Sequence to fold (189 residues):
Amino acid sequence: MSDNPPEAAAIDGSDFFIGIVAARYNGELVDALLERVVAVLKQSGVRQRNIEVLRVPGSNEIPYAAHMLASTGQFDCLIALGVVLAGETSHHEVISYGTAYSLHSIGMQSEIPVINGILTVGSLEQARERVLAPRDRGAEFARAALQMAWHKLKLVDRLDVLEAQKEDDEKKEDDEDEGFDPKQVFKNN
Fold:
């Protein structure tokens, strides 16, 4: 992630429903991310009862839980939280690439935005630097979720209007077709 995050947008989250899937692995770090995410959501008006937190064993299990939450259709945005530390093998790369791809796919298929808050870092020091001050990625993930939930609601409203217009147009065409009498075409010629 960049050291130059976007300026926070002032968004009223009082009507939003946010789902959070957080790994238990590297629990101290993920707990700190989760605490910051929830704090920023609440500061923006999201009600505690509208925030559902689901804990899973590790980051690799996050996509399954996120998919299941998305399938309910109850959320305006989902946030995935985890910390994957590089080790002596490439296992961290497998987890990082697999979860990133899966979370992206879940968002596209469900039409519910998914914020990928799974940090992949080379060391514990790097993780602490991103989770705690000065970078505070948890706050960034929450602000991204607020903005994407807002976009989702606006775009859903827009799509609903377009769908209603399409249905009206199709109904008009059907009504016009019902008044058509092919025998009249030949009588008039």
